[in-house]
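Tokens as discussed.
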């Protein structure tokens, strides 16, 4: 392992498959190396990930939002919504995904979520590299304190397949549910209506 100020970084296969240009999840215009360089430049500014109290297992590294594309839409009375059964990846539980037929505002905040090598192997997880930390998720939105999606929190808290335990408080769950009650992900053209 490298020292904590200069850890080795890599993309996880999970993130590589989800955060693709023009896809349904937040994405970055640059290539993987450019994103890792941004993370290195801002590593000292990292914060504990949602539900975490230290910088040992899950961190969020804030980076400039330039080149990031958000997918969160503020839902209004006339926003057309669609619902479909979905699954994040094979082996995980299915769920109902609600999407909005609208365009998100350009992001004012971006962050990169990284998991330590130890965190990646929790709950029968796997690593995609030999790096100290792997990129698991890209965030982009209206604010730095956007709560994690409540379903993701539940998956983690209950240690369901694909989840990594975090001791979220009742307040964190409530804030997430309230925040996401008027937001949805942008409907992706490849999704069924």
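Sequence:
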């Amino acid at each position: 392992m490298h020292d904590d100020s200069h850890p080795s970084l890599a993309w996880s296969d999970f993130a590589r498959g989800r955060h693709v240009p023009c896809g349904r999840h937040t994405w970055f215009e640059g290539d993987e190396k450019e994103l890792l360089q941004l993370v290195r430049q801002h590593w000292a500014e990292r914060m504990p990930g949602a539900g975490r109290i230290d910088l040992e297992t899950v961190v969020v590294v804030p980076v400039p939002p330039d080149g990031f594309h958000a997918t969160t839409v503020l839902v209004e009375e006339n926003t057309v919504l669609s619902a479909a059964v979905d699954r994040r990846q094979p082996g995980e539980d299915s769920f109902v995904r609600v999407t909005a037929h609208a365009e998100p505002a350009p992001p004012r905040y971006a962050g990169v979520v990284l998991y330590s090598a130890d965190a990646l192997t929790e709950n029968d997880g796997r690593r995609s590299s030999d790096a100290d930390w792997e990129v698991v998720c890209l965030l982009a939105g209206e604010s730095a304190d956007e709560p994690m999606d409540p379903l993701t929190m539940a998956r983690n808290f209950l240690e369901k397949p694909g989840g990594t335990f975090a001791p979220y408080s009742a307040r964190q769950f409530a804030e997430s549910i309230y925040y996401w009650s008027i937001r949805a992900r942008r409907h992706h053209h490849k999704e069924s209506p």
